[in-house]
Design goal:
rod-shaped; 118 residues; mainly alpha
């Protein structure tokens, strides 16, 4: 009788373990998926923060060096900047970057820029 009792206890323990595994596995898996999504979101947020910091730095650079002469839609002392990538050598982004980094050097090497500087 004692042996049957131990066999029944063993079956009940195995059944309980199987039931626990069946119930807990989806919960653990969903928590794992959620943690992966949170990690991906955190990575996206950190890259978003870096982009915002970069944009703020660009805005500050424009405000300090360009805004006095340039507007987006109005021609002031300098030409309007709206649509600048569709005209002149600025259609190539690397030329625009070279211009922003060192306008005097770009003026010396590009005829379109020389004409603008006069």
């Amino acid at each position: 009788m004692a042996q049957i009792k131990y066999i029944l206890y063993s079956v009940l323990i195995l059944f309980g373990a199987a039931l626990t595994y069946t119930v807990m596995k989806p919960m653990v898996k969903s928590q794992w998926i959620a943690s992966r999504e949170n990690a991906a979101e955190a990575k996206t947020n950190s890259s978003s923060i870096a982009a915002v910091v970069k944009n703020v730095a660009g805005k500050n650079l424009f405000s300090a060096n360009c805004q006095a002469c340039h507007s987006i839609f109005k021609t002031l002392t300098g030409p309007a900047l709206g649509g600048v990538e569709a005209r002149g050598p600025w259609t190539k982004r690397e030329n625009l970057i070279r211009w922003v980094k060192n306008p005097a050097r770009f003026i010396a090497t590009d005829p379109y820029a020389k004409k603008l500087a006069v």
